[in-house]
Amino acid sequence: MDPKAGDVLVVDRRASVQFNGDNALILRVISVSDRATYDGWAWIAGYVLDPETGEATVRREIFVLRGGLRLAASGSALMRRGGRWRSI
Questions:
Q1: What global pTM score does this model have?
Q2: Which residues pair with 79 in a beta bridge?
Q3: Bigger pLDDT: 69 or 79?
Q4: How far, in Å, CA of 5 to CA of 32, rounded?
């Protein structure tokens, strides 16, 4: 996936082992760096969203595998169940 500003992503263990289980997050993308990285990986800046309110809680820059990123369900509330995000 090629994320772009404005996308809301589910970032979990598929994107990087550092986001396994309770460390998974929902991220609203601000920017994607064009600096050179390993093939298939990217530096992404964005805001972590509260899964219940959708409010931005903290700004983060993360290093992730592009192929492991997923778009969050648009217009749906998201809940964490068993370490995974899903639409409710």
A1: 0.80
A2: 86
A3: 69
A4: 7
